């Protein structure tokens, strides 16, 4: 209680945007005495960030320092600019990796991207914090990835479960022995089928939940069911319209103890529910999305951004559908005209996901442009 109140007061004094939010509601942070009273603050939706940042580049007056005093600046789809402060393990994933058994004895292959999006550095800094040796492999190039695993005797993996599955398949095909014994997954759902296959190979797997804005929010620790809430976060499950906390399924609304980027009552757009008997402590994982954004292969695809680029390439009528066959996310864009390779590359560059394009006689323009058909 003392910790979050002192954090909120300091954030109010140093963040112009937060001060304006609270002043608009006549909320004095000095008068808030309980976590429940935090709910008086309106939810800041993730979908609002691109507009807020565009109005006051680059961070919408939300950070508590100057841009040139940050360690790094990233750009996520939206576009959304994400700041990195100069604290060690700025996104807080070291706690989750320790719970997953990663130590200073490990050589860990980090397959998240180090380009523009923060995921690569999120885990790089967390692994360095616990003293592990990092192989900054990034995504793609399975042949080289498997060679690295074998040559360096890699013991740990960080990335998506589907990519590790592909790497292990390739290693089996080539008769290459893989020494990975532990893996930490995020950005993509870990199915029970995949979990069983990894465990059968002697790989202990853990998963976590976080966002580019917030960093680590919850993680698996095998000390209880579901995902444990990070010590750096207050999580509420709220009605996505009113922002009122619920005892049932609701939008994940987060307050993060981050002095540089104090996100208070931030609506992630993800949906979850409390593990029975662990309200406020453990969530079951991500059950879906609210709003108009969909996470595909660990990257958010924003409907409005997709609409804009499709208009720019001369294809305003389209329908994008997300599926998950065999544990692999797939984005298929149905269009009424053929697109050249330059246009396809432009779309990929904007949404940061490689889609499959399918030509059809007619697109049903009466439905949403971006549809998630995955069944969790």
Automatic annotation (TrEMBL):
Keyword Ligase appears in the UniProt entry: yes
UniProt-listed Enzyme Commission number(s): 6.2.1.30
Single GO MF annotation: phenylacetate-CoA ligase activity
Keywords: Ligase
Superkingdom of the source species: Bacteria
Domain AMP-dependent synthetase/ligase: 129-254
Enzyme class: ligase
Database matches in Gene3D superfamilies: N-terminal domain of ligase-like
UniProt entry tagged with the keyword RNA-binding: no
InterPro entries from the UniProt entry: AMP-dep_synth/lig_dom, ANL_N_sf
Protein name: Phenylacetate-coenzyme A ligase
């Amino acid at each position: 209680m003392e910790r979050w109140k002192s954090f909120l007061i300091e954030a109010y004094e140093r963040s112009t945007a937060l001060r304006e939010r609270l002043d608009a509601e006549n909320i004095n942070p000095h008068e808030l005495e309980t976590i429940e009273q935090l709910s008086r603050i309106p939810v800041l939706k993730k979908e609002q960030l691109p507009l807020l940042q565009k109005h006051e580049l680059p961070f919408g007056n939300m950070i508590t320092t100057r841009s040139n005093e940050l360690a790094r600046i990233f750009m996520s789809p939206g576009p959304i600019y994400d700041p990195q402060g100069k604290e060690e393990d700025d996104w807080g994933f070291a706690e989750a990796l320790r719970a997953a058994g990663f130590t200073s004895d490990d050589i860990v292959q980090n397959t998240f991207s180090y380009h523009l999006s923060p995921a690569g550095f999120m885990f790089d800094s967390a692994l360095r914090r616990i003293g592990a040796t990092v192989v900054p492999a990034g995504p793609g190039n399975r042949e080289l990835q498997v060679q690295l695993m074998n040559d360096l005797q890699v013991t740990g993996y960080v990335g998506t479960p589907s990519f590790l599955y592909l790497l292990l398949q390739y290693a089996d095909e080539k008769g290459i022995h893989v020494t990975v014994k532990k893996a930490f997954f995020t950005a993509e759902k870990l199915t029970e089928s995949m979990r069983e296959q990894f465990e059968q190979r002697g790989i202990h797997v853990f998963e976590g939940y976080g966002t580019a804005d917030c960093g680590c929010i919850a993680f698996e620790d095998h000390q209880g069911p579901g995902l444990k809430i990070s010590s750096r976060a207050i999580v509420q499950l709220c009605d996505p319209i009113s922002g009122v906390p619920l005892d049932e399924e609701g939008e994940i609304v987060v307050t993060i103890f981050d002095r540089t980027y104090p996100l208070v009552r931030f609506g992630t757009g993800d949906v979850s529910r409390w593990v029975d008997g662990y309200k406020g402590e453990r969530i079951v994982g991500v059950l879906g999305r609210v709003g108009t954004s969909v996470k595909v292969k660990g990257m958010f695809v924003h409907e409005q951004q997709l609409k804009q680029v499709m208009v720019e390439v001369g294809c305003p009528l389209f329908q994008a559908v997300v599926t998950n066959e065999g544990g692999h996310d797939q984005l298929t864009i149905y269009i009424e005209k053929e697109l050249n390779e330059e246009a396809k590359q432009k779309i990929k560059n904007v949404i940061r996901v490689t889609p499959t394009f399918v030509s059809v006689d007619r697109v049903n323009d009466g439905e949403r442009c971006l549809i998630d058909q995955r069944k969790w």
